[in-house]
mannose-1-phosphate guanylyltransferase
Amino acid sequence: MTSCHTAGKMIVPVVLSGGTGSRLWPMSRASFPKQLWSLVSARSMLQETVLRGQVAGFAPPVIVCNEEHRFLIAEQLREVSVTGASIMLEPVGRNSAPAITAAALLVAQTHPEAVLWMMAADADIKKSDALGEAMAKAVQAAEQGRIVTFGMAPTRPETGYGYIEKGDLLPGVDGVFTIRSFREKPVQAVAEEFVKDGNYFWNSGMFVFRADVLLAEMQHYAPEVLQNVQEAFAKRKTDLDFIRLDKDAFAQAPDISIDYAIAEPTQVSAVIPADLGWSDVGSWDALWDISPKTAEGNVLLGDVLVEDAHGCYVRSEGPLTAVSGVDDVVVVVTSDAVLVTRKDRAQDVKKVVDRLKKDGRTEASAHQKNYRPWGFYEGLIRNERFQVKRIVVNPGGKLSLQKHFHRAEHWVVVEGVALVTRGEDLMLVRENESVYLPQGCVHRLENPGKIPLTLIEVQSGAYLGEDDIIRLEDSYNRN
């Protein structure tokens, strides 16, 4: 984003990264949601969002995320050289109002009149120059005590977005209007009327406001949210480089969005109509819409082959995927799941996820590849009394000192060097060497080298669940 000419004002980007993006299943799941994937560019959506706020004079960002993703987010920030960020951990999900309140309390400690630019981690904006111009107006209005949102000019009668009805021009700030009404996600006929009217805009979910103004409005319209988040913030703890809010207090906060809590009832709301090339990338058809296409209108990613197909989105994260003789379908292939749906039914993918959850299927929320602060592991083979995994440990990474009551493990190093604790012994295990860890043995795996350590782990025993881990010591403060 180009400079938005806000010299002298403290502007703090606040990025909310708590969603799971279930409509983009099977890629987006709770353990690794859409904002952490590279969906619209070579960078992840989180990285693109944070870099959007890297404007000269802007403060380092505040990221609000859940505990499970904290190390992934820290690593993604490091990859794009974003320093000085405050990463605040939500102990439980409570929607956007409590999360934003916590960020406002953090900033207000030292700069109560600072302007916060709140944005979701999973939206795409193509027109950075237009964003800079809109931000300049938003900051000016926020300085006058307004809570400002951006209204995106609708390009189609979309039923998956909320709408904002523009009111009168706000005195003193060119291009900023009062808000006449917020309208929930409409049925098709109503959405068509909104587009024809020309006075309705998609609700982008981005807000700009002063920290003290937001907190005052919370006190007036959502005092229970403010009270519980204040307590959670007062009892916060610093955990490595993370700010951990108190779980008991935060869990008492109402589960409510900033739209319902503040934006709709407040008397100081404002909207800036803008064409930012915005998309919330909330479904596969939306992703098809913003992606480069072939002459046949197909979006093709990964090892894919199409024959006589048009208007399709085909993505494979693994095996060759062939699509023939169909139009306007979405095909997404991962290592453990395949999705096929009509493009105009892409919103219904959430129903598939709900069904998987109801059936107790792990594919609803977890991938075969599971990320940890030290690296990741990936399931390869699973049977009743044994399973095989690939484990990759980053340079300097260290698993917890642990033991298992129900399984034994056999490690075979295939790349790098492992430093292994086994009982009282400490040993180096090199490529093509192995070590056996009997059931109940206290052990630890470390990577003392400068390249990733890769090993194959064979587990055997009566119970192979991930909860059969007794951590005796951990470098990452995990329970």
The chain has a mean pLDDT of 93. The longest strand covers residues 200-210. The chain has three domains: 11-279, 284-357, 369-473. The radius of gyration is 24 Å.
